[in-house]
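DM from R.C. (forwarded with permission)

"hey, sorry to bug you on a friday — could you get me a structure for this? deadline for the figure draft is monday and I only need the backbone to look sensible"
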Amino acid sequence: MGRAKKVILAYSGGVDTSVCIPYLKHEWGVEEVITLAADLGQGDELEPIRLKALKSGASESLVVDVKEVFIRDYGFPAIWANAMYENRY
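My reply, with the result:
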């Protein structure tokens, strides 16, 4: 099996994922790195993260609104299951 020519990278904007972009291109021969950041309601901080991905060499940088899916599929079930956080609640 050959190497991937296109990779979608879950991107946080931190050092690790920013370094992954040129690493994938130069060390693994990936032609196209597309980053994806999940919008969980962070607000204005996502646009600088998207721009950082492009400056780091991403061919495209996506921000996907997953607020509704996150609360429906993870938030509410955690509450219904009497989720504990730091041994409280």
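R.C.: lifesaver. The chain has one domain: 6-80.
me: no worries. DSSP finds three helices and three strands in the chain.
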